[in-house]
Amino acid sequence: MNAISARQFGLAGLTGLLSPLCFPDFNFGWLAWIALVPLHLALDGPFGTMTPRRALWLGWLAGFLAFTGIMSWVVTAMPQYGKMPLVASYPVMWLLAAYLGLYVGLYAAGVAWLMQRLPVAASLGAPCLWVTLELARTYVLSGLPWMLLGYSQYQWLPIIQIADITSVYGVSFLLA
Fold first, then answer.
1. How remote is the C-alpha of 165 from its chain's centroid?
2. d(CA 119, CA 153)
3. CB atoms within 10 A of CB 171
4. Are 12 and 54 in contact (CB under 8 A)?
5. Number of other residues whose CB lies within 10 A of the CB of residue 81
6. Among residues 154, 147, 151, which one has the least CA distance to residue 69?
7. What is the 3-state secondary structure (H, E, C) of 59-78?
8. Which residues pair with 45 in a beta bridge?
9. For each of the chain's 176 residues, which pLDDT tens digit applies?
């Protein structure tokens, strides 16, 4: 692995580590305004934008780490309410995080594609893509609207007033 790859994986990992801190238990909602920045820096490499395939992997890494942090409650809930052995609940959580990480991976691949083909439209297209994938995550395969980016702003009343009109997805759009 060369220095550029290590930097890109480190930046994607940083997004994955910052994301769970935006939500309850940690309550650093202000971090949501910068949590995606490291991933975007990773996607905009020193030799121009990267391929959507590589961006998919970087985004998946960020999403997997983020969802592992935010879905840690699965490890507690499965043994207590599902009577699953504790040792088996970890792989279940990792499988769930791996699936949910695909949405962030698709976002990163989409952003890389936009930056290559429509660089002027990428700054507006990226938030639209983020919200579209949050909507898909809410309804696909019975849905899991957990950790929508807009939920991180629940303590910031002036910011969430837009949710009256746009729902949580409008707040996610602003953040993305």
1. 23
2. 29
3. 25
4. no
5. 8
6. 147
7. HHHHHHHHHHHHCCHHHHHH
8. 48
9. 677 788 999 999 999 999 999 998 888 999 999 999 999 999 986 555 689 999 999 999 999 999 999 998 889 998 899 888 999 899 999 999 999 999 999 999 999 999 999 888 888 999 999 999 999 999 998 788 888 999 999 998 898 999 999 999 999 999 99
Tokens of 26: 């940690």
Q: Of 15, 14, 48, 13, which Cα lies nearest the Cα of 130?
A: 15
Amino acid symbol at 81: Y
Q: In terms of DSSP H, where are the helices of 71-146?
A: 73-81, 86-117, 122-139
- Which tokens go with 121? 């439209």
Amino acid found at 84: M
